[in-house]
Amino acid sequence: xxxxxxxxxxxxxxxxxxxxxxxxxxxxxxxxxxxxxxxxxxxxxxxxxxxxxxxxxxxxxxxxxxxxxxxxxxxxxxxxxxxxxxxxxxxxxxxxxxxxxxxxxxxxxxxxxxxxxxxxxxxxxxxxxxxxxxxxxxxxxxxxxxxxxxxxxxxxxxxxxxxxxxxxxxxxxxxxxxxxxxxxxxxxxxxxxxxxxxxxxxxxxxxxxxxxxxxxxxxxxxxxxxxxxxxxxxxxxxxxxxxxxxxxxxxxxxxxxxxxxxxxxxx
Length: 267
Hints:
Layout: H1 2-14, H2 18-29, E1 36-40, E2 52-57, E3 79-85, E4 93-99, H3 101-106, H4 124-160, E5 164-167, E6 174-181, E7 184-191, E8 202-211, E9 217-222, H5 233-258, E10 260-261
Antiparallel strand pairs: 1-2, 2-3, 3-4, 5-6, 6-7, 7-8, 8-9, 8-10
């Protein structure tokens, strides 16, 4: 039944114009983009033409992406490009990318990837490779970022093992410490962004003694410390140790000056 439906849709696009038949045969003739479907929609009230939709499965390599933990089966890793032609002159073309749940989550959500608009006068065989290149580059960055975050966390565990409170051992996005400097204790939470090491980790200093005006622990967020994405995980840990040693004293001074003392009301 599915094959018959597809054959029926293929005969319908011939009735629209030669442009769509050209797009169809061009995709069929290529092996790399031949996994696609074409559908002729229904004419909407007030519309002059019938929309024609191409759904192309993109040949993206997802093998190196980190595992995605989900209660339900996320299904097969896929990326489907929908290109919708709203008129037979092909002057109104709307592309949209659909990702399977694991891929969408790994890339940071559906809003994280913006595909280019369909250029006027272009055809599918010109447009699809650009989308594939964009998506494959993002997948490669995510895969490399995961491995680099894992390396970063391992280096910090080696350097500050006794001070570690907790860390994310699944996606390696977070690690927290309890540091002491001349009898002053504070927690430091490090957040590693998805596109690490290109994007710099964020240090969040948090006082265990003082509150801010909203009765929340006094905090200071630092994202402009010495950093280079070219450093290894070990060098990042070493540089961070030097920075933390000096900044904790600055944080202590700011916490005492600007925060209010944590007083146990039951004490």
